[in-house]
């Protein structure tokens, strides 16, 4: 290839690139301006496991069976079962704590729960400067369930 | 130029002092410092060399890779990759975890091809636990792993352009990735670390509407985005001048250093696990394995670009052949494997991801060894860079497409 | 007294223009890069299309700590940003902004321009050497090689124009184009060489080796922050404007144009050339140092020499 060909090809390839960029310039930007306009979450987006409230009774579905605690790989759920004055165990959790700083949002606890007590919320603005703030208590998790579009996807169902 | 440099440099990171390179600098106010330490390699004594730390905080090292580079002016004399900044103790941690938990955790290894990692783990466990996955799950796994390959190669295209100083390709690649991420989010509920595979199949099925959307995305990538990528960067004369012949490795070297994936195929060896050791339903699908000729950075980038097209072709076939039925086999919640070992390997966008699983019959692995392609590729950095310019080093390291999460595990 | 007052006014006027223009250009660069990459660019600070962004940046940079790296060569390091500003401001002296509006219409305007801009190298080298940083030093060395080798084709490429116009005075060159037509058409080879070389002189992509981000972080201004860094930026964008302006004066008829006043035409044409520079920056990858020198010495230099010879021959025959 002679020098002239090389120069010609180089110029041509660069002209193609410039044509592409100038064409893109006159298209609408694809940016979503995040805090002002929030992109919609897809149905079933996962961000944090939350405790579901039973519509009929207004109580938690959770019976403190501890299956989710055991199935959580990084062990970030801690459940203490409620006991009454006589020392008898009660079917609800006294405390239900979730350490979101460890949680890898894997959905395994939700699949493990046989009582439909856990769901995945789709709130992502949970960051904090203090790592202690990422340990969510039972009330906080219930609150999150109420304020988000939580959903349970498990067991090969079709979405 | 750098072809015949076979031996790995003997200099450990410690041998070269990193603070003393600007000998006799007027501002330091002290006597001229010796360029190198007493325990520097003998061939360096007396040469005016300069040691630069490229990374772990540097605009172009991928993740937290640190390269200790000894320079003679602009020329790279020696480069020693230093790894371990992202070590998370994956292999030891999973020895204490039940199998279902390992699958989402393995996402974090090669975080740009999470699905492939999951498949590697699942294949090993399913084999040892005698679990047969439903055909629809097998096809969907192929579909997702190819979609993942497209995503990963798009990112490669963007970051490689950035390494070479072109910024717009990065943004264009991310524009398409955004669409694909949203597709992934719809199907799996997450955008990057999917946690989608389960022992015995997939967490959930996808609907017809999603499949149609996916087809639209493929058409868009093939018809619009791909030609644009080629025109903007790959065919550009400056790009060609920067990459052709740079960081060249021969077939023998590639094999000797354990290269796999696009790095191996760039040298002209048509080794693709999807063809040579088919897993899932790859043996029922038709596709080509793009190979390069010279094994330089241009070829390895080109192989990746062509693989995007092949992946699109595979996904189209999957869409046509997708059987109906369940996607999750009946599996007990605590999966137990029979004693024994199995090495499962899949073709990730970076190369051969291998999981060597040793089981003693429990519900946890006795030992799990992760074979990361990036780790092997990173060893070739000295081979590819020494004797070249700094800019070539950046290009060569960029063409490896390393993911440090996978290297350090 | 009057002369002193006029001189002071001119200096203040130029400084104000340099500032305002650099803000404008920085904003424009961000917008152009944004829209090319399908983004919006700055929007959030306010003003029409986020135009207050540059003002906000300056406020931030003013408030930043003035940090000098340990072991830096104090005076070199401190003076480098100031030195980089000097040529950037000085070249405004000879720009033929309007038909009758030049700050000082020197008879050797073109020579003045190219000799003053070569001072930029001094500033870059002071910064690179004074910072006691290896990346800075690498950047400075690259800039040295680059600016030195592109200075030659840059000057040679303008000689064709000088031959046709018969003068080094920029006003005369522009005036010659009012009758003769733009020199761009006759001197297209000269213009291409001029344009490539001036992009290289400005350290912009694809020749931004001196600050090649992915290789040597920020090159010679790696260690600068706050106002000192801002001065480098001001100088860089001011240089972008002035060398585009020189291109307009030499090849595109300067202030010449119908209906509108001359300075409007001049600014308009200059901004178009600036835009083309930005367009190139956001399209092309970076070239390598040896390829850069090859291009300068083995391609641009012979081409520009051939251009001079060709022009001279044609002029002689005519
Ligand atoms: S999502 Fe996974 S990591 Fe998080 S609490 Fe549930 S099981 Fe544990
Ligand atoms: S598995 Fe369900 S019911 Fe049992 S403790 Fe967990 S959330 Fe409660």
- Strand tally of chain B is 9
Helix content of chain A: 25-40%
What gyration radius of chain B follows from the Cα positions, in whole Å?
Answer: 23 Å
List the ions, cofactors and other small molecules found in this model. iron/sulfur cluster
CATH fold call of the largest domain in chain A: Alpha-Beta Plaits
The Cα radius of gyration of chain A reads 25 Å
Low-confidence stretches of chain B: 1-38
Euclidean distance between termini CA atoms of chain B: 34 Å
**What is the ordering of alpha helices and beta strands of chain A?**
HEHEEHEEHE
Average pLDDT number of chain A: 83
Can you walk through the features of this model?
- The complex is a heterotrimer of chains A (159), B (409) and C (318).
- Chain A is of the alpha+beta class and 159 residues long.
- Chain A folds into two domains: 1-30; 48-147, Alpha-Beta Plaits.
- Helix content of chain A is 27%, strand content 19%.
- Chain A has helices at 3-25, 67-71, 108-112, 138-147, and strands spanning 48-51, 77-83, 89-99, 118-121, 135-136, 157-158.
- In chain A, strands 2-3-5 form a three-stranded antiparallel beta sheet. Chain A has a two-stranded antiparallel sheet with strand order 1-4.
- In chain A, strand 2 (77-83) and strand 3 form a beta hairpin.
- Chain A is elongated, with a radius of gyration of 25 Å.
- With 409 residues, chain B is an alpha+beta fold.
- Chain B has one domain (90-407): Cytochrome-c3 Hydrogenase, chain B (Orthogonal Bundle).
- In chain B, the strands form three sheets. A three-stranded antiparallel beta sheet of chain B has the order 1-2-3.
- In chain B, a hairpin with a 2-residue loop joins strand 2 (66-72) and strand 3.
- Chain B is globular.
- Chain C has one domain.
- Chain C is built from 13 helices and no strands.
- In chain C, helix 3 (74-90) runs parallel beside helix 11 (226-251), helix 6 (134-165) packs antiparallel against helix 9 and helix 11 (226-251) packs across helix 12.
- The termini of chain C are far apart.
- The mean pLDDT of chain C is 84.
- The structure holds iron/sulfur cluster (2 copies).
């Amino acid at each position: 290839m002679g020098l002239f060909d090389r120069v010609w090809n180089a110029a041509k390839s660069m002209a193609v690139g410039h044509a592409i960029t100038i064409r893109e310039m006159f298209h609408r930007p694809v940016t979503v301006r995040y805090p002002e306009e929030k992109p919609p979450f897809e149905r079933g987006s996962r961000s944090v496991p939350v405790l579901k409230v039973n519509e009929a009774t207004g109580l938690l579905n959770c019976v403190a069976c501890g299956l989710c605690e055991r199935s959580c790989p990084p062990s970030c759920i801690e459940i203490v079962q409620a006991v009454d004055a006589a020392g008898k165990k009660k079917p609800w959790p006294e405390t239900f704590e979730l350490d979101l700083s460890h949680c890898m949002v894997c959905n395994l606890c939700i699949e493990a729960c046989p009582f439909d007590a856990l769901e995945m919320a789709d709130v992502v603005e949970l960051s904090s400067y203090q790592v202690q703030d990422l340990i969510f208590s039972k009330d906080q998790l219930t609150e999150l369930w109420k304020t988000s579009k939580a959903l349970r996807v498990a067991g090969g169902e079709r979405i | 130029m750098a072809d015949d440099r076979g031996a790995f440099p003997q200099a450990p990171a410690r041998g070269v002092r990193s603070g003393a390179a600007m000998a006799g600098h007027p501002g330091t106010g002290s006597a001229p410092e010796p360029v190198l330490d007493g325990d520097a390699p003998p061939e360096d004594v007396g040469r005016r060399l300069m040691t630069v730390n490229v990374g772990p905080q540097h605009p172009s090292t991928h993740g937290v890779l640190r390269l200790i580079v000894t320079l003679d002016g602009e020329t790279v004399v020696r480069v020693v990759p230093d790894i371990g900044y992202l070590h998370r103790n994956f292999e030891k941690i999973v020895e204490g975890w039940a199998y279902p938990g390992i699958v989402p955790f393995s996402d974090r290894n090669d975080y740009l091809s999470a699905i492939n990692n999951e498949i590697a783990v699942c294949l090993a466990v399913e084999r040892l636990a005698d679990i047969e996955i439903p055909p629809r799950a097998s096809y969907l796994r192929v579909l997702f792993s190819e979609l993942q390959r497209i995503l990963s190669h798009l990112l490669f295209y963007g970051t490689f352009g950035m390494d070479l100083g072109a910024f717009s390709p990065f943004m264009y690649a991310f524009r398409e990735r955004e669409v694909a991420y949203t597709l992934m989010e719809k199907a799996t509920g997450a955008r990057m670390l999917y946690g989608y595979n389960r022992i015995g199949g997939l967490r959930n099925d996808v609907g017809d509407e999603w499949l149609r959307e996916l087809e639209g995305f493929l058409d868009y990538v093939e018809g619009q985005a791909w030609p644009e990528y080629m025109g903007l960067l790959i065919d550009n004369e400056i790009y060609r001048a920067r990459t052709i012949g740079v960081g060249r490795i021969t077939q023998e070297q590639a094999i000797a250093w354990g290269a796999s994936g696009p790095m191996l195929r760039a040298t002209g060896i048509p080794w693709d696990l999807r063809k040579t050791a088919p897993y899932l339903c790859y043996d029922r699908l038709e596709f080509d394995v793009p190979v390069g000729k010279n094994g330089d950075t241009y070829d390895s980038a080109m192989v990746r670009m062509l693989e995007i097209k092949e992946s699109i072709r595979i996904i189209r076939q999957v869409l046509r052949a997708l059987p109906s039925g369940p996607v999750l086999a009946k599996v007990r919640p605590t999966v137990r494997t029979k004693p024994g070992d199995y090495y499962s390997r899949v073709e990730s966008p970076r190369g051969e991801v291998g999981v060597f699983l040793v089981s003693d019959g429990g519900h946890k692995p006795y030992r799990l060894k992760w074979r990361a392609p990036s780790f092997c590729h990173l060893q070739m950095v000295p081979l590819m860079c020494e004797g070249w310019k700094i800019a070539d080093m950046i290009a060569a390291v960029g063409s490896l497409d390393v993911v440090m999460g996978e290297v350090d595990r | 007294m009057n002369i002193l007052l006029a001189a002071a006014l001119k200096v203040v006027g130029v400084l104000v223009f340099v500032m305002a223009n650099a803000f404008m250009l920085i904003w424009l660069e961000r917008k152009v890069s944004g829209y090319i990459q399908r983004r919006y660019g700055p929007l959030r600070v306010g003003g029409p299309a986020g135009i207050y962004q540059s003002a906000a940046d300056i406020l931030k940079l003013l408030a930043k700590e003035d940090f000098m790296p340990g072991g830096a060569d104090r005076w070199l390091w401190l003076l480098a940003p100031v030195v980089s500003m000097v040529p950037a401001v000085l070249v405004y002296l000879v720009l033929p902004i309007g038909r009758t509006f030049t700050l000082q219409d020197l008879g050797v305007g073109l020579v003045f321009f190219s000799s003053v801009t070569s001072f930029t190298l001094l500033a870059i080298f002071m910064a690179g050497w004074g910072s006691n940083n290896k990346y800075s030093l690498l950047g400075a060395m690259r800039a040295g090689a680059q600016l030195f080798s592109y200075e030659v084709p840059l000057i040679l490429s303008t000689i064709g124009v000088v031959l046709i116009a018969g003068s080094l005075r920029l006003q005369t060159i522009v005036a010659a184009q009012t009758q003769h037509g733009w020199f761009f058409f006759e001197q297209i080879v000269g213009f291409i060489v001029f344009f490539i070389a001036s992009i290289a002189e400005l350290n912009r992509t694809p020749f931004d080796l001196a600050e090649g981000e992915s290789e040597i972080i920020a090159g010679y201004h790696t260690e600068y922050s706050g106002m000192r860094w801002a001065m480098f930026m001001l100088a860089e964008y001011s240089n972008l404007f002035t060398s585009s302006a020189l291109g307009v004066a030499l090849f595109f008829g300067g202030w010449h144009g119908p209906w509108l006043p001359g300075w409007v035409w001049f600014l308009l044409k200059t901004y178009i050339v600036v835009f083309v520079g930005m367009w190139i920056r956001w399209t092309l990858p970076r070239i390598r140092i040896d390829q850069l020198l090859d291009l300068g010495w083995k391609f641009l230099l012979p081409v520009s020499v051939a251009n001079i010879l060709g022009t001279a021959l044609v002029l002689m025959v005519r």
